[in-house]
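Section 5: illustrative case.
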């Protein structure tokens, strides 16, 4: 773990570099390829050309104005990092060129890098195994692809429904910033493809598992004749399981500056959908413990966290997902009414994870009755929560 660190633009290297405090001086550790989150709170992984470094945000040089106020939030730090990167377009172009050339190298190079001791030492065994498996199935980084070759994800690999407002917002953003610099995640199913030919329209279809809203926005701009270039860059995979594809989609939303964060309601629906892949609604009153265990392991894998953390953070939402068919329909009605602002005295904004806390503690029969009254306007949000608490 690094002690004291900073990010600077090195004139000689012509790139952003990681520097570490070495006594009275600073030591340049090399060019930064990317920065990722880890499973440790307040810790990020800085990926260098020569390896990886784990860095604590509270050890970042707070005198650097580019990252001031980010020591307590990885989300704010990643936003600041992406804005910093955007100030150096020549760096982005150089990195794209280097990474595109990497796709012609032997696939085992990427696999060897991902299995280094420095990379795996700070991850849990399950997370490390997942990352290694994903690296094994990666067939190309930043592959140049024609935007019309991208297609929507299969329903079983779709993290959430399309939000039209978000697509429109992305279109406006792309108009103002034609060099959008998005790295998509995709799956290709055709065997023996030539990565160098994917930039041509009509090449094999690529299922978009990370960046689906951006795909729609760019394809619409292309059809409208407003896209500067039809070529995008994608990290391309083969033979992914549904769980692996969903994990990549979730990671893309967390890390990408223009990505739409996964909301609490989207997370709830994702958990329920994964549950029904393991058992039927008829089994819900008395589900087998083995199936529930498999379900929670799948959810934890998608989020890239331990099962214990999944329980600690999402236990209320997981409990609601165990509702009967009738109970789940009422939860769906509740979410829909929230989004359309039809609930009396509800808090402003989107549903938060904490809004599910009190209702999850009530017995399903009582909760169902209260949800009906809430959606029909017979009680308000405050009355609903008080009644849920009294029904525990």
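Designed sequence:
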């Amino acid at each position: 773990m690094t002690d004291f660190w900073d990010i600077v633009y090195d004139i000689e290297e012509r790139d952003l570099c990681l520097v570490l405090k070495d006594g009275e001086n600073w030591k340049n550790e090399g060019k930064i390829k990317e920065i990722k989150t880890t499973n440790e709170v307040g810790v990020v992984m800085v990926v260098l050309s020569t390896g990886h470094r784990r860095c604590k945000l509270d050890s970042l040089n707070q005198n650097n104005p580019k990252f001031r106020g980010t020591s307590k939030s990885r989300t704010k730090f990643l936003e600041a990092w992406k804005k910093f990167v955007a100030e150096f377009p020549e760096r982005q172009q150089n990195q794209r060129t280097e990474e595109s050339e990497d796709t012609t190298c032997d696939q085992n190079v990427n696999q060897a890098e991902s299995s280094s001791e420095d990379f795996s030492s700070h991850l849990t065994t399950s997370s490390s195994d997942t990352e290694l498996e994903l690296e094994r199935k990666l067939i190309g980084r930043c592959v140049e692809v024609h935007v019309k070759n991208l297609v929507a994800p299969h329903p079983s690999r779709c993290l959430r429904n399309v939000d039209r407002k978000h697509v429109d917002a992305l279109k406006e953003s792309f108009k103002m910033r034609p060099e959008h610099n998005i790295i998509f995640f995709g799956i290709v199913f055709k065997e023996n493809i030539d990565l160098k030919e994917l930039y041509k329209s009509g090449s094999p279809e690529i299922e978009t598992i990370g960046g689906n809203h951006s795909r729609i926005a760019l394809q619409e701009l292309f059809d409208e004749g407003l896209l500067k270039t039809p070529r995008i860059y994608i990290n391309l995979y083969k033979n992914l399981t549904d769980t692996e594809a969903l994990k990549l989609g979730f990671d893309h939303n967390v890390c990408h500056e223009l990505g739409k964060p996964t909301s609490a309601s989207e997370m709830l629906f994702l958990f329920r959908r994964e549950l029904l892949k393991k058992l039927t609604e008829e089994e819900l009153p008395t589900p087998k413990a083995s199936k529930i265990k498999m379900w929670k392991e799948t959810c934890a894998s998608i989020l890239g966290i331990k099962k214990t953390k999944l329980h600690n953070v999402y236990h209320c939402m997981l409990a609601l997902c165990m509702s009967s068919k009738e109970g789940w329909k009422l939860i769906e009605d509740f979410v829909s009414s929230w989004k359309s602002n039809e609930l009396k005295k509800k808090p402003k904004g989107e549903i938060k994870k904490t809004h599910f806390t009190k209702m999850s503690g009530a017995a399903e029969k009582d909760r169902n009755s209260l949800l009906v009254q809430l959606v029909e306007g017979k009680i308000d949000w405050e009355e609903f929560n008080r009644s849920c608490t009294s029904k525990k």
